[in-house]
């Protein structure tokens, strides 16, 4: 993939899914929840857009609407996001839900606000994601939260909870699965521990677990990290193993992009075991929360190895990736092919009646239907 920005406007906390032979993108807008639709996962510049929900004035959840995620569960579309009360601000951030009455997520009038997600403890929580685990046949929600009883705003850990339905959690199953304790997970001289933006990734043959963001999202030291599921019961903290090195970082000496984080993932449609990582980053060092735009990279299983070294997102821009391999010279790997090879692959796919979007959209859609 190109690792170039996929839109001209800021698209922080990008979440992308494939369905209906299209790509759907949502991201943090602040005062509303939008969904964008495109036929290309790397180009949302002239795409269809809707506002799925904008809170009415003088209602409780109207400020700091962050990190929406679009999921198809039990035959319905949901959006998980968080918001805060204007009179309280950040300290009252809670996970909120939208549900659609339509099978088309782009039908703006079909979205309804359900309020807070039921069953979560009453503490600061953001960045909720949901996933189905085939081995247990259960649905789970993972989110970033302050430790229970700690309102200092100095620590964000990852919590996992089993879901009874897409709208209701089982409070007795709550488990903290990751604590921001490693030096590179802590911002501002180590005073703020940050684990946030979790998403579940399963790669055939080697990795199953949570990819999350660490360090301060307001800094260029933001990065992606790995938490591998190694035990049978995901609701036990001992079932999770944190890799001591991050997955994706930036390096001021190598150039931008900087502060890679808050990613979503889609499987490669080519059967090569790779995944596409949609993440945000800034163009320049030290831009904080400004100029965060979504980009796409291709990862292989080797990047998720427990002893692997972190990758620098600047290497793809410079033509280097996977330990010095030239992106433009690698053939037969999704996302790492020359324009000529890409054109040949697309033509071949069309001849077989399955373009990239057909394959990827169909693959994701079939998985989504498994939840219904």
Notes on the structure:
This protein is mainly beta and 372 residues long. It is built from three helices and 25 strands. Strands 9, 10, 11, 12, 13, 14, 15, 16, 17 and 18 form a ten-stranded mixed β-sheet that branches. A hairpin with a 3-residue loop joins strand 15 (192-203) and strand 16 (207-214). It is globular, with a radius of gyration of 19 Å. Belongs to the glycosyl hydrolase 43 family.
Query: Any idea how many domains?
Result: 1
Low-confidence stretches: 322-372
Largest sheet: 10 strands, mixed
> How many angstroms does the end-to-end distance come to?
32 Å
Helices, by number, come to 3
How much strand content do the residues show? 35-45%
Question: What is the 3D form?
Answer: globular
> Mean pLDDT score, rounded?
87
CATH architecture descriptor name: 5 Propeller
CATH class category: Mainly Beta
Over the alpha carbons, how many angstroms does the gyration radius reach? 19 Å
| Helix-and-strand structural type | mainly beta
| H-E string | EEEEEEEEEEEEEEEEEEEEEEEHEEHH
**Proportion of helical residues:** under 10%
CATH-defined fold name: Tachylectin-2, Chain A
Number of strands: 25
Say which CATH homologous superfamily is assigned: Glycosyl hydrolase domain, family 43
